[in-house]
Design a protein that fits this description.
Length: 190
């Protein structure tokens, strides 16, 4: 199972448990109708929630569910790409990082649009970040690059042609501000 799908499965399970607890809480706090008449005409306190409390609980429940759908679904990779099909990447690009320098196989790296591409980034000394940004400065994806012997890889499908920049997204020392490489990826076709 792909790591992002595992994370999404955990997310789904946690949200399901929270929703289950809210439903159980709502059921357990229902006020029942009093079946006994009080001979002294004193009102018997009801158990559970009042009507206004129920409305607020339902309102908060809806806000939480809608908020999760609106805010978190764009962050989940499978909401945009269908990686659960186990499609193998059509290209593999290996990038090495050492002594504050990214070594690219070519500049610019030419990638066809709509094709799964695997980026393997190897660090020989420090922890770096590997972020790909579009020309508006919007981060397309990023990963943390941990030194050898770890394999740092990500598979991505570029949907829009154009040039993309690479930046280090992890502070890695005094030369970190210089780890910006404009127009390093060129996506063609589409």
């Amino acid at each position: 199972m792909a790591p992002q799908l595992f994370i999404e499965l955990v997310y789904f399970i946690v949200i399901s448990i929270v929703i289950g607890f809210i439903v159980i809480f709502y059921i357990l706090t229902q006020r029942g109708k009093s079946s006994k008449a009080d001979p002294d005409n004193e009102s018997v306190p009801k158990k559970g929630m009042e009507k206004g409390e129920k409305r607020w609980l339902i309102f908060l429940f809806i806000v939480v569910v809608v908020g999760n759908i609106l805010m978190l679904s764009p962050l989940l990779p499978s909401s945009r790409y269908v990686f659960w099909l186990d499609e193998e990447p059509k290209m593999t690009i290996t990038i090495e990082v050492r002594n504050y320098e990214f070594v690219f196989p070519e500049n610019p790296i030419t990638i066809p649009a709509g094709v799964p591409v695997e980026f393997i980034v190897i660090s020989h000394d420090l922890v770096y970040g590997f972020g790909v940004f579009n020309k508006d400065g919007l981060m397309i994806f990023q990963m943390q690059v941990v030194p050898k012997p770890y394999l740092n890889s990500i598979v991505w499908v570029f949907t829009e042609p154009g040039y993309y920049d690479i930046r280090s997204t992890e502070y890695s020392g005094p030369k970190h501000p210089y780890l910006y490489f404009p127009n390093t990826i060129r996506v063609v076709g589409g």
